[in-house]
Amino acid sequence: MDLFNGAEFKINDLRLQGLSLSGIRTAISLPEYHLSFDVAQGFPYLLNLHHFFISHGHLDHAAGIPYIISQKAMNSQPAPKFYMPSSLVEPMTSMMKIWEKVEGHEYKYEFLPVTTASRIHLNSSHFIKPFRTLHRIDSFGYTLYQITKKLRNDLQGASREEILSLKNKGEEVNSLDEKPLVSFTGDTQIEFLDLAPEVKKSKVLIVECTYLDERRSVEQARKWGHIHWQELKPRIKEIESEKIVLIHLSSRYPTKEAIAFLNKELSREEKERVVLFPGR
């Protein structure tokens, strides 16, 4: 596969496609859900998706917005929807107006502001909920939830006849269960775990980890709004996720070197849970 068409990464029945390298490009898509977290420079694997969740406005995460819009228009696709921090909506709209002036063409798109109270429904059984992150500029992470129906707790053990009787009376016998499937942090400091503790229950947590060793200190990482491995390592045990996917690694760490480092740092059990997403 062409690297710039995105590396594929499978976790059980979940397929991730994308790339993430600090300061260069970050766009992680879930093709089966027709969405992407961030858009990098607008690579081919993003162009047929419907929903784009932008964590913040830095170019390595958001530069592809105008290109995706133009490609959607050229291929007569529906106007794309970009969900983003409210502070990003006005400047991105202004930039698109400039592009329209340069190209002599008016584009259709939606820039939709998000808050921690937002619930963006993708379909009848899945929605996205934003959560606060801490970066140098306004930023959000996003969690994909799955909605399932289950029999009410008080009806567990009830006979079929009892349940049918209640249904015939118009009573709702099911309750809705909302499970966090995938969370994506974008760029953030480690305190996102305290601001949004529910994220720790996601089946898969995609979390930035920009620096690994002493070549950059924890203080330097925090200055630029990033996570250092030495901050994440002691908090892995409190994260309940089946898989913790590290993204946004600094380009100073070759992939083989990074994997060797993590293999030394992780216990046998942790090695089953912590994985490094391909970034190059």
Gist of the model:
With 280 residues, the protein is of the alpha/beta class. It has nine helices and 14 strands.
Structural notes for this entry:
By secondary structure, the chain is an alpha/beta fold. It has a single domain, classed as Metallo-beta-lactamase, Chain A. The protein is 25% helix and 29% strand. It contains nine helices and 14 strands. The strands form two sheets. The protein has a seven-stranded mixed beta sheet with strand order 1-2-3-4-5-6-7. Strands 8-9-10-11-12-13-14 form a seven-stranded mixed beta sheet, with no helix packed on it. β3 (25-30) and β4 form a beta hairpin. The model has no long low-confidence stretch (mean pLDDT 92).
CATH superfamily: Ribonuclease Z/Hydroxyacylglutathione hydrolase-like
Radius of gyration, taken over Cα atoms and rounded to an integer in Å: 21 Å
Q: In whole angstroms, how far apart are the ends? A: 12 Å
- What CATH architecture label applies? 4-Layer Sandwich
What is the string of SSEs from the N terminus onward? EEEEEHHEHEEEEHEHEHHEHHE
The low-pLDDT segments are: none
Main sheet makeup? 7 strands, mixed
In terms of DSSP E residues, the strand content is 25-35%
Mean pLDDT: 92
Shape: globular
- Figure out the total of helices: 9
CATH topology: Metallo-beta-lactamase, Chain A
* Structure classification: alpha/beta
Number of strands: 14
Which CATH C-level class is it? Alpha Beta
Number of domains: 1
Helix content: 25-40%
Main-sheet strand order equals 1-2-3-4-5-6-7
